Amino acid sequence: MKKDNKCKRISALIIIVIMGILMLVYFTFCYIFQTHYFFHTTIDYIESSVQTVDTVSDILKDEFQKYSLHVIGREDTEVTISAEDVSLKVDTQDALQKIMDSQNAWLWPVSIWKEYSYDLEHIGQYEEDALEQIIDTIPFMQRDYMKAPQNAYIGDFQESTGQYELVKAYPGTYLRKGKVCDSIKLALENMDTELNLEEAGCYIEPSITSEDKELLRLWTEINKQVSARITYQFGEKEEVVDASLIHNWLFTINHAVYIREDEVKAYVKELARSYDTAYRKHAFTTAEGKDITIDSGFYGWRMNRSEETEELINLVKQGAVVEREPVYIQTAASHGERDYGDTYVEINLSKQHLYFWEKGNIIIESDFVSGNMVKGMATPGGIFPITYKERNAVLKGTNYRTPVSYWMPFNGGIGMHDAPWRKQFGGTIYETNGSHGCINLPVDVAREIYEHVEAGMPVICYYE
Fold this sequence. Notes:
Elements: H1 2-32, E1 41-43, E2 46-47, H2 53-64, E3 68-72, E4 78-82, E5 89-90, H3 93-102, E6 116-118, E7 124-125, H4 128-137, E8 153-158, E9 163-167, H5 177-189, E10 194-196, H6 213-226, E11 229-234, E12 237-241, H7 243-246, E13 250-253, E14 256-259, H8 261-275, E15 282-285, E16 291-294, E17 302-303, H9 305-318, E18 321-324, E19 328-330, E20 344-348, E21 353-358, E22 361-367, E23 382-385, E24 390-397, E25 400-411, E26 414-418, H10 429-433, E27 439-441, H11 443-452, E28 458-462
Parallel strand pairs: 1-6, 3-10, 11-18, 20-28, 26-27
Antiparallel strand pairs: 1-2, 3-4, 5-7, 8-9, 11-12, 13-14, 15-16, 17-19, 20-21, 21-22, 23-28, 24-25, 25-26
Helix pairs in contact: 2-3, 8-9
């Protein structure tokens, strides 16, 4: 019994001693953590466990002396500003004390298994004069170094692509000094380690970039127009109006695409000179097989230059891809030197003989009487189109009114018609007893020719 009581007393004593030790440890650390940071405390990534405010402040001051600001500009330019350069100072005492005051020393045991991490809000203090001197000596802050920005624009026509190039804006290196100073000061105050001047908005930027909607609209429009392809057909020949030509006509001004109309007009004029055949010489082979040249008359192709210029401009504006014939004032049977084709009226004024050719074959042949040579009314040679045909017309002139049944004019007031008052045709009648210039035909011949001719059909008159 006595032995058991003794054991109990010893056990109680041990417990009291242990409790005393624990209480001593607890209150000792309560005292320590009144002025020291808890276990597992880091401040600005500095291990600060069981450190005083002054100790941590000294450590941070040493770290801040290593601080530098890396300033990055465009085109691989950069500069580093150290703490020493601007006499940078950072007062962390109040912030550190604030952390200390937030600790509840009586709860220090919690820090045994809990971690505490703090990031201080630093406010750097520097000498402004020193900073401004540094900024003034930065190479890329010098005016001679700075390059003005350039807006995006529509560049030259590229033959390789058949399109106009869209030239991107050049950002330049022109800095706004006031903005640069403000950005560096803010970075130093915040203790930032890097400052990108472009991201900070320190550069003067182009006002028009390659994403500008108006520029893109204009670029799309001019490329639409230069992509037009107009193919002119002239029989077996063709002329193509495409980008290689059109790009010389286009220009932009005031956000619009324009066409140099005088150049389009000049092109159409040259086109007409190349392919118009009216008022040109015509090679001709007579029914007797003789090769002659018809050097007068107005039969042939004759382009309407003004209307075709307008049509061509409209097609370019539409970006059209088409095959077409020009607008003509007058057309012919076919293209080429012998544009009169193989259906025509051949009038040999020297032999007073007429041939009607249809698809290369003579289907009508007759003598006739032409204009009176003695009276100066000779029928002129040349190649002309039938103007129209009319039944029962009255031919009028000075001192005469002559009714005819079949009237087929081809050269102003000169034409073919029936002459029922004549009994003979051909020979040399025309020399002294000819007409006022018309081709007088037997009634039956005039009727037959009338049934075959149409307006525009060529009439070829010649003297041998």
